[in-house]
Write a structure and sequence with these properties.
Layout: E1 6-9, E2 12-15, H1 30-38, E3 43-47, E4 50-54, H2 66-72, H3 76-82, E5 85-87, E6 92-95, H4 102-111, H5 122-131, H6 141-153, H7 173-184, H8 190-212, E7 219-221, E8 227-229, H9 231-254, H10 258-263, H11 265-289, H12 295-310, H13 324-335, H14 337-362, H15 373-384, H16 397-415, H17 418-455, E9 460-461, E10 467-468, H18 471-474
Parallel strand pairs: 3-6
Antiparallel strand pairs: 1-2, 3-4, 5-6, 7-8, 9-10
């Protein structure tokens, strides 16, 4: 330990005494420290009990690091800040650190190359680099990929998911916390998992009902010729929206931080899945109230109501709350905006080039379909994306040559950024699964600890203050004496 290292004050070798007013420690002067460092020969770096011999000149390669500053330090206070203990007589400097990673760090001073040892914790190695005043930029290319990938996969602590929700100390705080865990954390309990499954089932069934309600056999016309939904689908939609509204309101009431809850992306999606129904309902009431009025405005209101009715399909995104793959897909698109921007730029450049060539070569032909540049742009985009509806096609040899080059370049241009986006998806999905598994284990362990505390039998105390076991534990069966038989 640090207290067992012997120190030298004024040239005498003595144990480290406790600094008291009776026996004060007299630190060595800077002249003694300078004279000790001028001496030739190696110095000893004691890292957690493992000693390394090194020359002072070797530590001069990185003067801003901890060992580089130790080389140039000439005061007792500076040495105390840089190391835990030192002995000038033995030329030994002690650091209370783990010696596991120091071999690689000392190798950087000796060979100018920093390698990551096999089986080393990346987070621990990063903390050691920070302690010794070095950076990971010194890593060799053979170890950089492993190091940065492992650091990137580390779960992010201190985020909103890791922060403990503060529900206050009010009388409704336990109920609020229970409701929040019931509707927000599926891994908290079996009841929370049931609520999550029911919510997903409501989303899937409501989406299927919205699709089937558009079939002609389920659509009816009233006396004014307006298409109305089947009564069964109207009732089912009201039930679904009622559940979604109830779920959103309960989660909003139980949320410990209301503003952050309102701004959250998934909560905005939940709100967008509810509002179109109420908007279409209000428009229907308005149209009913003005049924004898102007028909032109009624037609416009009816189109708006149809738009809001179709927007109810947005509630399918509510599944992303419980499906890690959908969350990863959104995170991938968010963090791949550069690749997506590059893809759009390449496609637009190809469209402009090939549409211009096709328009010039086809516009003067009789019966041509390339009557304008927008028409040619439409042909270019469906050709580059390999769709090819066939509604517009070139007829001249030059136009066919341009069309062939457009199709080939389109395949190449679109396929180049796609592997980057797929790679980003794989990385984010792997990281999300690791964080989800860690979070589930943390919540499971905390839940088990809570159950153990609740089921732990209380300890009763006698009148003299000594503890007594409960009655069930105190009555133990007597030991069986085989000598009686």
């Amino acid at each position: 330990s640090t207290t067992q290292v012997r120190q030298t004050w004024g040239g005498r070798d003595q144990p480290w005494p406790a600094p008291t007013s009776v026996n004060p420690i007299r630190p060595p002067s800077p002249f003694i420290i300078i004279a000790n460092k001028i001496l030739t020969g190696p110095v000893i770096l004691n890292i957690g009990g493992k000693k390394h011999e090194v020359q002072w000149d070797t530590l001069d390669k990185f003067p801003t690091s901890r060992l580089g500053r130790l080389r140039n330090c000439v005061t007792h206070r500076g040495l105390e800040d840089l190391c835990d203990a030192y002995s000038l007589a033995k030329r030994e400097y002690y650091f209370d650190r783990s010696p596991r990673n120091f071999d690689a760090i000392l190798g950087l001073y000796r060979t100018d190359k920093l390698h990551l040892s096999q089986g080393v914790c990346v987070q621990d190695f990063c903390e050691e680099l920070e302690y010794w005043g070095l950076t990971d930029l010194h890593l060799e290319p053979c170890c950089q990929h492993t190091y940065y990938r492992a650091r990137w996969l580390l779960p992010q602590h201190g985020g909103p998911e890791d922060a403990d929700e503060d529900f206050g100390n009010g009388i409704f705080a336990p109920s609020q916390k229970h409701l929040w865990n019931l509707f927000e954390n599926p891994h908290h309990s079996c009841a929370a998992k049931v609520v999550a499954v029911v919510s997903c089932m409501f989303v899937v069934v409501s989406t299927l009902c919205l699709i089937f309600s558009t079939l002609p056999r389920f659509q009816q016309k009233d006396e004014n010729g307006i298409v109305q939904e089947e009564y069964f689908f109207e009732v089912a939609e009201a039930v679904f929206v009622g559940w979604f509204t109830f779920e959103y309101v309960i989660r909003f009431i139980a949320a410990p931080r209301k503003i952050e809850f309102t701004k959250a992306g998934m909560n905005i999606v939940d709100l967008l899945g509810i509002l179109p129904y109420f908007a279409s309902l209000c428009l229907s009431l308005v149209m009913t109230a003005t049924a004898s009025g102007q028909t032109k405005y009624q037609d416009e209101m009816r189109r708006i109501a149809q738009i809001f009715r179709i927007l109810r399909i947005l509630r399918i995104f509510k599944l992303a709350r419980h499906i890690t793959g959908l969350q990863t897909l959104g995170m991938t698109l968010k963090n791949s905006y550069k690749e997506l921007g590059l893809l759009m730029l390449v496609v637009i450049m190809g469209m402009l080039i090939f549409s211009g060539l096709a328009y010039v070569g086809e516009k003067d032909e009789p019966g041509t379909m390339f009557i304008s540049m927008p028409q040619a742009l439409y042909w270019a985009i469906i050709t580059m994306t390999s769709v090819g509806y066939g509604d517009i096609a070139p007829t001249t040899w030059f136009g066919k040559l341009v069309g062939s080059a457009c199709a080939i370049c389109g395949v190449l241009c679109i396929s180049l950024p796609i592997p980057i986006i797929v790679n980003n998806f794989n990385k984010f999905y792997e990281k999300a699964k690791i964080e989800e598994e860690i979070l589930a284990k943390k919540k499971k362990s905390s839940w088990e600890d809570t159950k153990k505390e609740e089921t732990k039998p209380p300890v009763r105390f006698s009148e003299n203050g000594s503890s007594k076991l409960p009655t069930s534990a105190a009555k133990r069966p007597e030991r069986l004496d085989l000598r009686k038989y």
